[in-house]
Amino acid sequence: MNIPNLLSIFRIFVTVFFIIAVDHREFRIALYLFIIQGISDLLDGFFARVMDKKTNLGAFLDPIADKVMLVSSYLVLYLQSIIPFWVTAVVLFRDLVVSSGFLVLYKLSYKVKLSPSLLGKLTTAFQVATVIYILWSNVRAYELYFFSATVLFTIVSGCQYVTRGFSVFLKKENV
C-alpha cells in the first residue's frame, strides 16, 4: 500500500462523512469535506507521478474514488432537494453508460486504457465546481447557469466516451 492508494481510500472514507453532513444540512462542513476530497484527489495523482508509485491498484482505486465522491454528492444533494433531478440524472446516467461500456469492452477482452480526455476532465471540473458553488452559496440565483454548463459538458463528454468505446469495439484498437 502506498501514499497515492491510501489517499484514494481516504477519499472514499471521507465521502461517508460528507453524506452525513449534507443529510444533517451542515453545508459548511460538507463543503470542507468535499474540498478535502478534491485536494486528496489532486495529491494522489501528484504523488503517484512524483514518487513513481503508479500501480494497477491505484489505476483502479482513483477513478472509483472519484465516482464515489461525485455520484454520492449529486445523489445526496438531489435527495435533499438542492440539485434538481434532471441534473443528477444526467450525471449518473453518463457515469453508468461510460462505466458499463468500459466493463463490456473489458469482459470482451479488448485492450482499454483508462485515460480521461480533456473534455472528461473539464466535465469533472464543472461537476465539482457546481457542488462547491451549491454548498458555498446561500444565493441560488446562478444555479441554472452552473446546472446547464455541467449538464452540457456531461452530455458532450459522455458522447465522446461512447464514440471512443465504439471505436475500440469496431477497430479493436487501444484508445
How far apart the termini lie comes to 29 Å
Summarize the helix and strand pattern as letters.
HHHHHH
Query: DSSP helix count?
Result: 6
Number of strands: 0
What oligomeric state is this? single chain
Pick out the low-confidence regions.
Answer: none
Residue fraction in strands: under 5%
Shape: globular
Query: How many domain regions?
Result: 2
Mean pLDDT: 88
Helix content: over 70%
* Major β-sheet annotation: none
Structural class: mainly alpha
Radius of gyration: 17 Å
What does this structure look like?
The chain folds into 2 domains: 1-82; 83-175, no CATH class. The chain has helices at 3-23, 27-50, 56-79, 85-107, 118-136, 143-171. The chain is built from 6 helices and no strands. With 175 residues, the chain is mainly alpha-helical. The protein is globular. The model has no long low-confidence stretch (mean pLDDT 88). 80% of the residues lie in helices and 0% in strands.
